[in-house]
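Dear Dr. V.,

Thank you for agreeing to look over these. As mentioned in my earlier message, I'm a first-year student in the group and I'm still getting used to reading structure tokens, so any feedback on how I've presented them would be very welcome. I ran two proteins. I've put each sequence directly above its structure. The first is here:
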Amino acid sequence: MRHILIVGSNGVGKSTLIRSLLAAIPAPVEGVLTKKAAPGPDGFCPVCIRSYHASEQFGEENRVGLCREGQSIAFPEVFDRFAETMQFSRNGVIVFDELGFLESGAPLFTEAVLRTLDEAPIVIAAVRDKQTAFLNAVRAHPRADVYPIDPENRDRLREQLLSDLPKLLPGLF
């Protein structure tokens, strides 16, 4: 089976589309989520990572970066520490929401993601449209189908992918 990569800029609807796809797929889901919290007093928004089914939490132990208007600070050691816990059963859908540029300095994490793309039957991922060696390798993976998303095509893309899911993931339908 092929992997589905939804590629686009920040806030364009990648995660929303992935939630729609997952709701339509009759299979267990596991994976990794990153989420940006509200800005702190310094104007920086913490970006935190967690397992797909873990409760949302924003703390130093899972803070992978800080972002504000064109600035970002990555904490690659947090990505790499998290990579040590990334073990998936490989009998359902694995989600990465989202893969971005903060991960670039985290070799253990980036290797774990690329290994998952090699080994997992189905990966659905939100991928930023930035140019980094890691993101370029994800988008160029031989089992990946890349679906660019933008404000103009996101509704049409959602309908297309929902309609095509049985053909894209034949073992699940």
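The second protein is here, in the same arrangement:
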Amino acid sequence: MSDTVGETARRWWRRHQPDAPRPDAAGFAQLRRAVTPVEALMVPATHALDAALAEARPDRSRDWQALGVLAATLAHVRVDAPARRTAAIFGEKRGDRPVLSPLRFQRLLQADGWPARMAAFRRAIAVADGHANVADLADSLLAWTDIARTRWMFAYFGAPSPRAAEPAAEPSEPTEDSAP
């Protein structure tokens, strides 16, 4: 049975942590310094992630820029919080304000192009003190679509996602028998 993309990315991330048996501290340091997705692709650790993802999901489409953004962003995650979605972490209240302000969250969702997304995600992780759900982040970044962004919006505001919500009742059409 193959792992999900997110769980595969989580395993890759764990292997690079300082407490791992043979951490690749240099690889993660290079990824933290990468400014663009292309620079992240020049780091061997990124190719190790790609190989692991290809093994988990050989049929997945491969977006090299998304891969570079994912590797560089995960290098900034210090604490994996698997019990919550990353957007929910960003929306958590610290005092009377969310970890990530609504304006910054909006900019994150609207970042245009992979280099801008890379910068926005890394800033968001930094503001969240390095906390994120590694698997959720991987699943989302590798399929950054309107559906993923919608799930993030609902999670940020602590609302059930559209899939989890009860379907709305269909408005009934008046029939000939019920017409006045």
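From my reading of the second output: The beta strands are 79-80, 93-94, 97-98, 131-132. The first strand starts at residue 79 and ends at 80. Does that match how you would interpret it?

Kind regards,
E.
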